[in-house]
């Protein structure tokens, strides 16, 4: 990846999006500030409880790591891995379960940690998967929400940022498995 300036980077030659430019969408500082606010709200709302935080792989791994380190309540973690995009930047319309949770969530307070809600298909799948195991409660937190496109029949409990309908990468989110290491969030530049 080539840094063109502090606010612009170019996708590497090894990427199928080689040469395309990305522009900054949400800075690292703004992300960290908002993650702390989300963690404070969750700590307040779950005081005295021991929720199990379930990260949705791969995209949420950095958000999850920052979020749990900013909590000041007891918690446990687990992960689930889903795929809805494959190699494209448009949803495939189906969700595949690639790795299920290992923990027994029956009778537990579950907090599902998503990186981004786009169409909402993945979230619906997650809700069905969690609910069937009989938890005490299921709560959803997503760093990003594409409000214009999300078709949800239930509200998200905690949202970091509402963003426009543009493909974003960085802070754990990928374009064809690349660019997850960028500290800020970037959007593909429109030509
Ligand atoms: P949904 O099922 O359409 O809501 O899509 C959710 C999943 O698609 C997320 O967990 C991401 O893995 C991926 N995704 C959706 N939009 C983006 C994006 O703008 N950048 C990177 N990944 C995305």
Task: Provide keyphrases for this structure.
single chain; alpha/beta; Rossmann fold; six-stranded mixed beta sheet; five-stranded antiparallel beta sheet; 11 strands; binds inosinic acid
In short, what is this structure?
The chain is of the alpha/beta class. Helix content is 20%, strand content 30%. Strand 7, helix 3 (121-131) and strand 8 (137-145) form a beta-alpha-beta unit.
Report on the architecture of this protein.
The chain has 191 residues and is an alpha/beta fold. The chain has a domain of 129 residues: 3-Layer(aba) Sandwich (Rossmann fold). The protein contains three helices and eleven strands; from the N terminus they run E-E-E-H-E-H-E-E-E-H-E-E-E-E. The strands form two sheets. The chain has a six-stranded mixed β-sheet, sandwiched between helices. Strands 1-2-3-11-10 form a five-stranded antiparallel β-sheet. The protein is globular, with a radius of gyration of 17 Å.
Give the structural class.
alpha/beta
User: Which cofactors or ions or other ligands sit in this model?
Assistant: inosinic acid
Mean pLDDT: 92
Range of strand content:
25-35%
- Whole-number radius of gyration? 17 Å
Q: Tell me the strand order in the biggest sheet.
A: 6-5-4-7-8-9
Question: What is the CATH architecture annotation of the domain at 28-85 and 92-162?
Answer: 3-Layer(aba) Sandwich
Helix content: 10-25%
Residue stretches low in confidence (pLDDT < 50, at least 5 long) are none
CATH fold-type name of the domain at 28-85 and 92-162: Rossmann fold
Largest sheet: 6 strands, mixed
CATH class membership of the domain at 28-85 and 92-162: Alpha Beta
